[in-house]
Amino acid sequence: MALLDIGFDADDTLWHCEHLFAETQEELQHILEKHAPRDEVEAKLHATELENVRLFGYGIKGFTLSMVETAVQISQGRITGDDVHRILMMGKRMLEAPVDLMPGIRGVLEALRGSYRLLLITKGDVLDQTNKIDKSGLGDFFDAIEVVQNKDVAAYRDVFDRNGVRVRNFLMVGNSIPSDVLPVLELGGWGVHIPYEHVAIHERHDADPAHDRFRRLLHIGELPALVEDIRTAG
Ligand SMILES: [Mg+2]
User: Fold this and answer.
1) Over the stretch 121-180, which tens digit does the pLDDT of each residue have?
2) 4 vs 16: CA distance, rounded Å
3) Distance 17 CA to ligand 1 centre (A)
4) Domain 18-95 adopts which CATH fold?
5) Span from the CA of 168 to the centroid of ligand 1 (angstroms)
6) Whether the Cβ atoms of residue 191 and residue 185 lie closer than 8 Å to each other
């Protein structure tokens, strides 16, 4: 089979990301301890995030606003200006955090570049995602970089149209079953899942897809061998 195009998710696939959200959520729970138990803060934050995503999109700015909203509601309006300021600074610190690459990722991209067309497909806030790509130093490995609002079937179809991708010859790799695997399988491509230790509330899933083009790797370093297997098997 002529496997020509490989799509990479960015957050928690090329670099670590979700731990920033987990650590910041712990800080929020600490700030709000005097108003409510930690599990109540967590549940309220997650519900607020899910509710707000249609208005704010995915990303740190929306998460920060959801933290402020959670704080105001959990404290029944008694949160202090100082604490709101602390929460805003936590969000800014996330935006300014250095990019921490997954081990071995440069070698993987070097091995695949040249033989395959590489696309970076990420969702979220355009400025934040673009800043992270710059900080990562990985941008030059990619033939196309696509920042989309949501990784659903329609968004992938648009990306494929823009880049002349034939989906039967497309493989997407990422840490999210709902965002990186299911829509691509539905369109007829390959979906490769590499689990990450933290899973965002909106990326959780119950069961693995039953599909002959679904694969799971433990580490991104296994990708070049899998790509070669698929290419030579077809
Ligand atoms: Mg991801």
Assistant:
1) 999 999 999 999 999 999 999 999 999 999 999 999 999 999 999 999 999 999 999 999
2) 27
3) 8
4) DNA polymerase; domain 1 (1.10.150)
5) 22
6) yes
Residues with CB under 5 A from ligand 1 (ion): 9, 11-12, 175
The whole-model pTM stands at 0.91
In terms of Cα–Cα distance, which of 217, 201, 218, 159 is closest to 183? 159
Average pLDDT over residues 93-114: 96
123 Cα–ligand 1 center, Å: 8
User: Averaged over 87-105, what is the pLDDT?
Assistant: 96
Output 183 or 211, whichever has higher pLDDT.
183
Instruction: Compute, in angstroms, the gap from residue 69 CA to the centroid of ligand 1.
Output: 25
Q: Cα(57) to centroid of ligand 1, in Å?
A: 15
Q: Yes or no: is domain 5-16+100-233 CATH 3.40.50.1000? A: yes
* Length of the chain in terms of residues written: 234
The residues of the chain that CATH labels 3.40.50.1000 are: 5-16+100-233
